[in-house]
């Protein structure tokens, strides 16, 4: 909270107490018995007023706290905080309030780091709180009460476990938990936002259900270096593949099922696919040859910058040949240029073709890649069947 936010806070005095203060300066008798000081317990540095006062009498020795309205008005705070109560200070052996430095600053999820303090962040000071004041108790001496402000329930997004706070949005206790809109997704230069997780190790996606509790609801935002399309469904996979985008399938997505979904084979691809162990299954491609020489496959021609890794693909390709010509049908790709990398890729399924009657076409089927110059490591395509061996 900015220090100048406090500048201009009204030091509210009931009329009698105000007049008494003036009278006291002139040697007159005070018309109140005891003075109650309300201290907002914010850092001591700054040119703002941090206290309000009220006097109590012997006839009515009860303090009245600043309120949201009226002459004795409570100082206005950021809406992410609310007043929990007023407290007597915790005292040291000399009877003085105990002051603690470097507590968690207001508006943050954790203390300042040494690096942040070296960059000029000021260490803040707070008075430690003792017993909460009961306003039904009479005031028997001059006292100072210190405010305790607490965060309103908020949806807090952290970068990682113990990491920096990316956003804090005030929510209503008991309201249904809702996922932030895509426009409010966290951003980090040079990185792609993957998803929200329930833990800082990113093992469990956050479940956007239930209702907000009294405290903060904390979620963790995962980022990966580079520019990626985050793919979790067959539709997103097809869209990213058609655009030639880099495809990242989170580890929590075990399968992507194309059953009943259209898969459009690529003419070429030169991006990066990291399946993180996902099985992409149910792919069915049915095509009919048009030209006299064609090559059909799932990914077409793989460029020299292609990386496909950590993915299993199960598909069936059916090719109808209505005219004479030379044709090839390959499960994964027609070709892979030098420089391409295929690592831990498993392919299964069937490559089939149907040459129409009277046709003398030459058709060759391939379990993996027709013309392969890629670096291939730990790949398995033995479970692919073809109508004609390579």
Domain module count: 3
Low-confidence stretches: 1-27, 44-48
Please write the string of helix (H) and strand (E) elements.
HEEEEHEEEEEEEEHEEEEEEEEEEEEEE
Number of helical segments?
Answer: 3
Helix content: under 10%
Q: Overview of this structure, please?
A:
The chain has 390 residues and is mainly beta. It has three domains: 3-151, no CATH class; 154-225, Listeria-Bacteroides repeat domain (Immunoglobulin-like); 229-386, no CATH class. The chain has helices at 15-25, 114-118, 234-243, and strands spanning 34-39, 51-56, 81-89, 99-101, 125-127, 129-132, 143-151, 154-158, 165-170, 191-197, 217-225, 229-230, 247-248, 255-257, 268-269, 272-288, 293-296, 301-302, 307-321, 326-330, 333-336, 341-355, 362-366, 369-372, 375-377, 380-386. The strands form six sheets. Strands 12, 13, 14, 16, 19, 22, 25 and 26 form an eight-stranded parallel sheet that branches. A five-stranded mixed sheet has the order 2-1-7-3-6, with no helix packed on it. The relative contact order is 0.08.
């Amino acid at each position: 909270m900015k220090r100048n936010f406090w500048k201009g806070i009204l030091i509210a005095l009931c009329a009698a107490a105000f007049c008494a203060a003036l009278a006291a300066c002139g040697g007159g008798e005070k018309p109140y018995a005891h003075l109650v000081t309300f201290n907002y317990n914010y850092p001591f540095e700054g040119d703002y007023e941090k206290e309000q006062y009220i006097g109590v009498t012997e006839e009515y020795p009860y303090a009245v706290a600043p309120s949201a309205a009226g002459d004795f008005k409570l100082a206005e705070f950021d809406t992410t905080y609310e007043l929990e109560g007023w407290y007597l200070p915790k005292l040291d052996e000399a009877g003085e309030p105990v002051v603690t430095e470097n507590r968690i600053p207001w508006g943050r999820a954790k203390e300042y780091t040494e690096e942040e303090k070296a960059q000029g962040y000021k260490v803040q000071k707070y008075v430690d709180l003792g017993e909460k004041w009961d306003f039904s108790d009479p005031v028997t001496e001059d006292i100072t009460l210190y405010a305790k402000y607490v965060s309103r329930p908020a949806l807090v997004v952290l970068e990682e476990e113990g990491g920096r706070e990316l956003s804090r949005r005030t929510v209503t206790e008991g309201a249904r938990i809702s996922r932030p809109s895509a426009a409010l997704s966290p951003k980090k230069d040079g990185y792609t936002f993957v998803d929200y997780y329930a833990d800082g190790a990113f093992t469990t996606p956050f479940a956007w259900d239930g209702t907000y509790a009294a405290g903060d609801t904390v979620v963790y935002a995962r980022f990966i270096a580079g520019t990626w399309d985050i793919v979790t469904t067959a539709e997103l996979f097809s869209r990213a593949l058609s655009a030639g985008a880099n495809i990242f399938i989170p580890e929590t997505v075990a399968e992507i099922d194309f059953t009943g979904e259209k898969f459009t084979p690529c003419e070429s691809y030169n991006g990066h696919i990291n399946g993180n162990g996902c099985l992409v299954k149910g792919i069915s491609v049915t095509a009919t040859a048009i030209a006299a020489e064609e090559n059909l496959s799932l990914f077409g021609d793989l460029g020299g910058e292609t990386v496909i890794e950590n993915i299993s693909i199960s598909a069936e390709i059916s090719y109808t040949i209505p005219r004479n010509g030379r044709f090839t049908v390959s499960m994964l790709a027609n070709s892979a240029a030098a420089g391409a990398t295929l690592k831990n890729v498993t392919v299964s399924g069937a490559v089939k073709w149907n040459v129409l009657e009277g046709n003398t076409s030459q058709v060759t089927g391939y379990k993996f890649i027709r013309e392969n110059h890629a670096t291939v490591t730990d790949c398995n395509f033995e479970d692919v069947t073809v109508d004609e061996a390579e």
